[in-house]
Amino acid sequence: MKKFVLSILFFLTAFFAFSQFYEHLDMEFRKDLAEAYYLVGKQYKIAGKPEKGDDFITMAYSIYPELNPDTINPDKRIVKRAPRISGEWKPSFTPMPPGVTSENAVKYQFSRLLRYFLTEDTEGMIEVLDTRIYGPSADAGISRDDFRKRLIDFFGAYDISNLPPSQMLDMTSIKTEPVSRQIWAASILVARNPVVDVSLYLNPGDRKQVFYFRQVGNTWKVFAVGSLPRALDQVIQPEKYIQNVMLSCLNAFVQRDIITSISYFTDPFTDITSARDLSKDDLFDLFSKYAEEFDFSEIQDMHMTLNIEESTDIAESIGKLFKVYVRYDSPGNKRLPFWSSYRGTYVVFDETEKVWKIRAIF
After folding, report:
1. Could you tell me the pTM of the whole model?
2. Are the beta carbons of 357 and 345 closer than 8 angstroms?
3. Which of 277, 259, 260, 258 is CA-nearest to residue 268?
4. DSSP letters along 287-327, please?
5. How many C-beta neighbours within 10 Å does residue 72 have?
6. What are phi and psi of 34, to 5 degrees?
7. CA-to-CA distance for 215 and 106, rounded, in angstroms?
8. 210 forms bridges with which residues in the sheet?
9. With bands split at pLDDT 50, 70 and 90, how would you rate the model's confidence at 317?
10. Cα–Cα distance between 90 and 269 in angstroms, integer?
11. Which of 80, 104, 153, 244 could disulfide-link 297, Cβ–Cβ 3.0 to 4.6 Å?
12. pLDDT tens sequence across 47-98
């Protein structure tokens, strides 16, 4: 009993100076904490310091007004809070080559796209496209591979390489303009009474065809045709959303909130190191085991730095894939079950649920 009281005394007095520090704690933790305060107060009274003891007992009832001294187990270990996990992704800006403005870069890329189209150069067009293309008939986006197949079918159905460009497009109508700091639009009009009406395959019913560019590395690429995607923020700068997913998942994990933690995983989820696919039921069983056997309160608060980069390492059909390297800035992660065994994760955008999810771990 004496050893128990001494072990929690330092913990309690560290909080005592902060008025109403307990207000933001959950009730289960407040109950455990109040019981610990009550026991310390009783020990002060036994030690001949009744005023000090009364202070602790009064605080116990302030923390948890429904405290019942008769139900307190003196041998119960105090439940300490789970560690807080914070982190950040720092955006890296890749400048355009010296002397190249965004406008000129977009004009150059758009001229390449048109040239490749008119000469039926499928692979050349693919070079100008982002990894996923959005549009009125593809708000969820389509991959470059799917776009490649559509181009091959189109060029197989129409021999446009021998047609004068003016019979399809009004080459004098090309315009480029900024939409925002991160997006530029390039447009061209379809010819009147065209021999081949390309608008039917891009943005039907509109003579003006608009192509939206975003900067990828040190170049600009087409990521949308006809209209911008609804989840534009997630497309243009997904890293901040991925950061939130990683932090939310890890914090739920150390707080033993298993349901929330596994909600950030795809079903199935792949453990690349063991070449295993795990269902959400498998993850639930695994995380439940950690919650029962591991004392997360022994781990100090942690801060991590995220390095996030787009990836094509895993063939995906449900959305963009990013590789996330995690670097912990404190040694606490070495004691963190499950996560400490891996270098990072693959995160994919689930177009159905409109959320980022952990697809695999490596």
Report:
1. 0.61
2. no
3. 277
4. HHHHHHH--GGGSPPEEEEEEEEE--SS--SSS-EEEEEEE
5. 17
6. -65, -40
7. 9
8. 187
9. low
10. 27
11. 80
12. 788 998 898 899 889 989 999 999 888 766 555 678 888 888 876 655 566 6
